[in-house]
Specification:
globular; Dihydrodipicolinate Reductase, domain 2; Rossmann fold; homotetramer; 2 domains; alpha/beta; seven-stranded mixed β-sheet
């Protein structure tokens, strides 16, 4: 067997960072050679993630010496807050590492950042070079990339579900309303203030609508995949769960589109894809059946009364919606089978 | 003080029945004189609802002797499964009792029943006479009624939120997509098979779409209140909660409609209503703030990018969405203050 | 009707403070004349507790002018963190107000405070004067008191369950092991760091054992009620719930003690008490049947194989374990019926 | 590599059956050659366990042809209800298969079955031959066995925690009180009637005490491992979780026993064991840190005031408490590394 690929995880103290370490640990073609963090530097992995304490002696290093990191690792995962990775990635890339960024820093056009993320992008030159890391739709682009922008949790099922139907002309390219539901870990860092158990149990509530930063990401991902320009309205909701993201997308059905046509379109598109489960017409998505796995579940139907095509999709936001998809992208980058180290079977119940 | 009004609760063994008894117990102008059930007849209240065991000696009676019930009670609450109350209500009405029906049996037109409920309506003559029991919109009609059709949990916030905007011309009378989220007690009887803790925790999933029976109820309630004919697509979802229903409604915004215009329209409509809380623009509804109370929370905004007007509303499905609203209707019927025996302050957290 | 009693709630921003306001709002013999807080001073009630926004215009005042508070209120509830009320209470008492303290500041002997609470008591002279506010056991003492030490959530069911059995000689006065389980709101302020939804869902864990400050409170309360000196080991556990405290107490059964004897002893002790439900032998306590009410549920049995008498008790920690019991004490203080404004029927499910 | 070992899973439709299939799927030295069920026979795996639908074409076979099963599989896992496997196992053993039984049918002495399980054991001759499958304590016995009695979920952490302390004389061989807490999947089949989401959320309650069948299993396992005869009182409680079992065990501390002595005893006993994590004194067990893994977490301390030694232990009841431990036993049986196919890192959060 060839030498293992040396990889770094920067920003290890978050949930996605913890999942990256957990999943990479069993990856037979990878060696985790650098684990870095900002505030967590100096601690061991076991102190920061007690459930990983069997790996406890691994020390978390600072992430300011990019040369050292690039020397240690051929590929670096950046699991840092939005706005941080765009500062780090160019240096790592220049020093020769490939980069898989789990933040939103390389997913949009430069002009979107002030509006949706509140900062001016510091390295706009890299935006065009970044591959949008949705492996089912952009396999080759990813395999050749030096920089992969790993998609957001909500856009993953939304784009996978909508793009094929737009491309096939089964839905009209008008406004699409996307209603998202997420467990607390999918609500992002802004949720930390509102994520207490006392406030979250028995609470159903929208948040950050209509300005959520996944809105333009859905629009751009759909355009890249289908060639269609559409406007998305995205209204995310927090529900009392830890993991799991489900989107229900409402589009105008094209003349003559039927429930079987939209279902068959998705089935045909993803035939053979190891991580996409298209449900037969009439079956309902359940986010729980994806939990702990890298699967996405998709369902589509047409409502004739209202002329609506509905697409429902769900993922485990920390796996297919973050760390798992990042490893799937790594597998493409290094020429491994894309399922390596990625569970297809959910932990249920 | 006048003699208390004698009331009956039929179908006491369900959740709505239990809440009716709990809330009526403290109603100063009412005496609960008859408690009836089908399978639960013969048991005591405390056996069927252990949390009510302080009322434990009350015996549940069979509900087949309509004459006896009418003799015992001036008003009867029917908290029976869909399809049962339409068989019982006419007999009670003929014998002189007023009826408040918590099922769907008197909410639609006769022609809707085969399609949406799967049965032919046995007493279509009463459908026109039934008042649709949304007190904020149909106060006088209810006060004069002999038969009140208590609204469904989802239609309550949807109609309260959408009808004023349609009437004011702030949203277009085209198709409206309503995305519902509910705790397990709001998913109705069909949820019982899927309502185990193991299957529900960490699960987000749509159900019974697009054929949910609350679809035509929303359409009809909106038409009654606004005069506008619209098509609704309703996609309900189950989330891991016990109580709480939240609807997010997506409509086409009228030319020039703004977030402040839609907010002000709702505020003006419900000014002085004790049970409606319209949030200022930018604030987000939280179903948890209605739990245990008879409140509805409403929020509206306009998204210019997609031309959408969004209305979000939430209730405690067992109170404002069932038993509490039924008692509010009773208060109108008997001339009591409509807030009598109904909590306005939620139990939080 | 007589003039309402004017009451103050100090420390209104916490959960117990919110519940005090909610419950007092419907108290027919009380007027809430002063609402105070430390950091929350200047805000309105609706800002601090959005579920109480119907009372939103009430402004929270600072709590440093004790003269003003005493002038405003005949009785002051202190819902402040442990260690704060012992500084405030003497001034209020000297100025003529009665005080009901929900913290632990007046529940123990002076010598216990350094060990169990980590501070030297600033007003030891008041400790003997304080009545321990367990109404079922110390009715008259409370009715005559100027200062009431409202019990902790865990000690309430533990003392109510154990003291009668010790007094009756049905359990031996040796060490008693108390295993506590609580929802997150009962874990106290120390839980705030560990109370995120992500960390709490699917987590069962002990905390602060064996040094939890409710240990000496149980010992002292049992001694006051039964005359017996016993040692308690208390191991509290956090489980994924918001409300609800359940204690399982393991004591050495006295020779000849049986399940019916211990059950009958509890039944006889609490016969006629409105807020105590003693379950028949063989029935199991469920914390959920007390939620939203001021009830305590108790169960006792003897295991012959191991010579153990087991007592299980549960309360809603924010009501019978805090705000509700405080109002029950208020009712005794002001000569009202002790059930005034206190729900006996739980909100279920 | 040698030919894979052919294994059967009988009783695949339950939770443990589903977990067996999920975990065995990735076992490199095993081939799943027979999947059987009673009522589920004729369905596919994907119909019974939708989260396993990627394995969907596997057909579930009836389990009445023992010859066929033995021909197909060298080792059979029995994940059947208590009382069923004792009827099947002898036939399979006679036909030459080895058997790992996940039910309680081979864990006790014949005389215990009428009392604790309510049936007369049909094959008492096999009881002595069965190895009690706690790999950390009975490695060699298991490796040589033809029949392994896989332990119950509660006894696993209780025996692992208590037996070494008894053997070392750090706790007295008197009565031990074990307070158990479990998520709904650990409460066994009897929980199905009480396991609705509406009844379980916000509910903490004991069940089946003091007659739970894990009581004599703890006693026997402790005796086998330590040589000490003790009486156990076991009081299990249901809390609102899906997975996770935690036991808090209260024993009389031996003269001179200290928190460091009991901690060191456990650390020394399990030094090098891949699936046991002994926490340093002062740290607290959290069941969530074991979820999805085959780990057990243990903690011990001594409370001098009450003379009590406390041992706390937790497992994921479906993995180390059922399917995972069964595979660990399989690994011993077939000479594989005992960690093969078993996660050590929990899925968190």
């Amino acid at each position: 067997m060839a030498d293992p690929v040396r990889v770094a995880v920067l920003g290890v103290s978050g949930y996605a960072g913890g999942e990256l370490v957990r999943l990479l640990w069993d990856h037979p073609e990878v060696e985790l050679t650098f684990v870095g963090g900002k505030d967590s530097a100096g601690s061991t992995l076991g102190e920061v993630h007690p459930h990983l304490s069997e790996l406890g002696q691994i020390r978390i290093l600072p992430i300011d010496d990019l040369g050292l990191i690039s020397e240690s690792a051929e590929v670096a995962f950046l699991a840092l807050p939005n706005g941080s990775s765009s500062g780090l990635a160019p240096g790592l890339l220049d020093a020769g590492s490939k980069v898989i960024d789990l933040a939103g820093d390389f997913r949009l056009a430069a002009t979107d950042y002030p509006t949706w993320y509140g900062f001016d992008h510091p390295a706009p030159g890299w935006l065009d070079e970044a591959a949008y890391g949705l492996p089912e739709l952009f396999t080759e682009r990813i395999a050749d990339a030096r920089l992969v922008a790993n998609p957001g949790c909500y856009p993953t099922p939304a784009i996978l579900g909508l793009a094929p139907l737009l491309a096939a002309g089964l839905i009209e390219p008008g406004p699409i309303r996307v209603d998202g539901k997420t467990g607390i870990t999918g609500a992002g860092r802004a949720a930390s203030g509102i994520g207490s158990f006392a406030a979250t149990e028995e609470s159903i509530r929208p948040y950050r609508a209509p300005g959520h930063q996944h809105t333009p990401e859905m629009e751009r991902g759909i355009r890249l995949a289908s060639g269609k320009d559409i406007d998305v309205l995205f209204v995310p909701h927090l529900v009392p769960a830890v993991r799991g993201v489900l989107v229900s997308c409402y589009a105008v059905a094209a003349q003559g589109a039927t429930s079987s046509a939209v279902t068959e379109c998705l089935s045909a598109t993803y035939d053979g894809e190891p991580f996409v489960r298209v449900l037969p017409a009439g079956s309902m998505v359940d986010s729980k059946r994806t939990r702990g796995s890298n699967m996405v579940e998709l369902q589509a139907f047409v409502d004739d009364r209202s002329g609506t095509a509905v697409v429902v999709g769900a993922v485990d936001n920390l796996i297919k919606g973050a760390a798992g998809q990042a490893i799937q992208n790594l597998n493409l980058l290094i020429g491994a089978d894309q399922t390596t180290a990625l569970p297809r079977l959910a932990m249920y119940p």
